[in-house]
Amino acid sequence: MSDSPLIRLRGITKTYGNGVAAFQALKGIDLDIPAGQFVAIMGPSGSGKSTALNLLGCLDGPSSGSYRFRDIGVDTLDRQQRALLRRHCLGFVFQGFNLLARTSAQENVELPLLYRGAETAQRHAAAREALAHVGLTGWEHHTPAELSGGQQQRVAIARAIVTRPLLLLADEPTGNLDSQRGHEIMELLVTLNRQQGITIVMVTHEPEMADYADRIIRFSDGLVASDHEKERA
Amino acid sequence: MTQMLLNALLLALRAIRRNLMRSFLTVLGVVIGVAAVITMVTLGNGATRMVSDQISSLGSNLLILRPGQQLGPGRDSAGAQNFKLSDVDAIESQIPSLRAVAPVVGSKVTLVAGNQNWQSQVNGTTNAYLTTGNWTLAAGRSFEDDEESAGKAVCILGNTVRKQLFGNVSPIGNELRVKNFSCQVIGLLRAKGQGAMGQDQDDIVLMPVRTAQRRLIGNVTDVSMLMLSLRDGVSADPVMEQIRRLMRERRKLAEHMDDDFHVMDTKQIAETLSGTIRTMTGLLGAVAAVSLLVGGIGIMNIMLVSVTERTREIGIRLAIGALEHEVLLQFLIEAVVLSALGGLIGIALSLVVCLALTALMHMPFLFNPGINLLAFFFSALIGIVFGYMPARRAAGLDPIVALRFE
């Protein structure tokens, strides 16, 4: 890979609605995230952090500005191309876990591989491996309803990493968990970041969770208010 | 491409399995629709076959001459003059293309033998009746000439009458009480089974026409019907015209008067009946097809509900990298698999129903692969047509909005 960062945002704005009702969620963001970094994005609600995560996750396109992901101009991609980028390079973890109900952990984790057209045997093996990574060996055939919140989030993380993504996007991954489960999940994310070199961008409003990250970016009113990088322990 | 379709199929089957009960209720409409269409058509085919079989067992090349106009709207057989025995001779001598002419005069009377009694149709006729009706004797003999001319009290029994009155004992030579006179059994007809209208053809007693006229009806000249059998290879239409002209002449009908009798061709009756049954089959099939359509609308309804209910799921799939057309394909395949499954269940159901009903109605069971295939493909088509709109809605969702959907 070249020296250019994994993610480069330049002058990103995002406006919802138009005319008088228009609301500018992002007012010009410049941001570089190098590969392998664990970034936490913080900020009060309405500060634009979720919008930024959606843009970084290619779920949405910016109103203006440029977004380069590994030298790909994401801002020029259409809906289908963005979906392909998500499929091949990105993984998502959500606050509400967002697992398919009445579907086993194994099948949940296999889902992204299905869309990649992986073969059955390979799919099974990769899903088992990913579940092992998050410490859920032996729980493959349990459905979300039979798993605790922490376990559900682990399944969600396994689903996000089963495709070996370059970038993992986490939207308040500990928001629905108690503090102890939250710390366990954070430790898991740190391990994935350190061992597999997965770049992680996480939105959170809990400072003690943000502390796990290498870098904390604070958003305020659609702009980057502070960007604090710390030495890895 | 195949891999993609296979995956979509797998996803669809998983989705169906996750909601087994709802899936079943969804396809119930299609199940019933398909079963109804196939059952109607199969039973219709069976009925048509049964009628044509029975008409041909009635006698091939059979014409029936009856007094009165052909029944129909505004027509009436009342008041028309009966035929005479002399008509039989006249027809026999003047129309050579006929093989046999049998006069028939009869009524429904109570028969008694020993301590058994039974109501049955008693027909006074001649031996020609055996030819025209395609009857053969299982035992005994037919009428002697002198029995016919003198009107002796002898009779030939149908198989049902024998069973009811004599059980397993041979009836030949035994006495049978017919209304108020005693009659000797001289023959037994070979069993024929059920007739075209579901009547029992074997529930019959034959006796010489003069015997019946004198002792049963009390009118020594009239016969109520003539049965005429055509020679092989003779077409019915010209002969029917000849008979018509002859009978008009004998009945002294003036030029301007309508016929007061009519000739029926059994082949024509068979065709008419088959046609009627075909029409009924088509009609019932059409009604059933409407229910199939309603079943399709049921599928669309449930699929739309399902799309709303599964908005989050669709959001997850889209976020994970599912393409629009993959989500579309998944929901479409889900609808098609559902309705095709419904079609298969419907076919199985119709098979059971048809087997049961044909057995119950003593009908032949004619498996019709065409209608089965058609119903199956139509049910799959319904899946495509009614699954498309919900699938489009699912595929068009914005992943961000869908993920936030509660």
UniProtKB/TrEMBL annotation, chain A:
Family under the similarity heading: Belongs to the ABC transporter superfamily. Macrolide exporter (TC 3.A.1.122) family.
Keyword Transmembrane helix: yes
Pfam families: ABC_tran (PF00005)
GO cellular component: membrane protein complex; plasma membrane
Keyword Transport assigned: yes
Domain ABC transporter: 7-233
The entry's keywords: Antibiotic resistance, ATP-binding, Cell membrane, Membrane, Nucleotide-binding, Transmembrane, Transmembrane helix, Transport
The protein, known as: Putative ABC transport system ATP-binding protein
UniProt-listed PROSITE patterns: ABC_TRANSPORTER_1, ABC_TRANSPORTER_2
InterPro entries to which the protein is assigned, alphabetical: AAA+_ATPase (IPR003593), ABC_transporter-like_ATP-bd (IPR003439), ABC_transporter-like_CS (IPR017871), ABC_transpr_LolD-like (IPR015854), MacB-like_ATP-bd (IPR017911), P-loop_NTPase (IPR027417)
Species lineage: Bacteria, Pseudomonadati, Pseudomonadota, Betaproteobacteria, Rhodocyclales
Gene Ontology molecular function: any one: ATP binding
Domain of life: Bacteria
GO biological process: response to antibiotic
UniProtKB/TrEMBL annotation, chain B:
InterPro entries the record matches: ABC3_permease_C, MacB_PCD, Macrolide_Exporter_MacB
Residues in ABC3 transporter permease C-terminal domain copies: 286-399
Domain of life of the organism encoding this protein: Bacteria
Domain MacB-like periplasmic core: 23-246
Transmembrane stretches, start-end: 27-47, 283-307, 327-358, 370-389
Major site of localization recorded for this protein: membrane
Signal peptide interval: none
GO cellular component: plasma membrane
GO MF entries: transmembrane transporter activity
Membrane topology: Multi-pass membrane protein
Location(s), subcellular: Cell membrane
Keywords on record: Cell membrane, Membrane, Transmembrane, Transmembrane helix
PANTHER family: ABC TRANSPORTER PERMEASE YTRF, MEMBRANE COMPONENT OF TRANSPORTER-RELATED
UniProt record similarity statement: Belongs to the ABC-4 integral membrane protein family.
Name this polypeptide is given: Putative ABC transport system permease protein
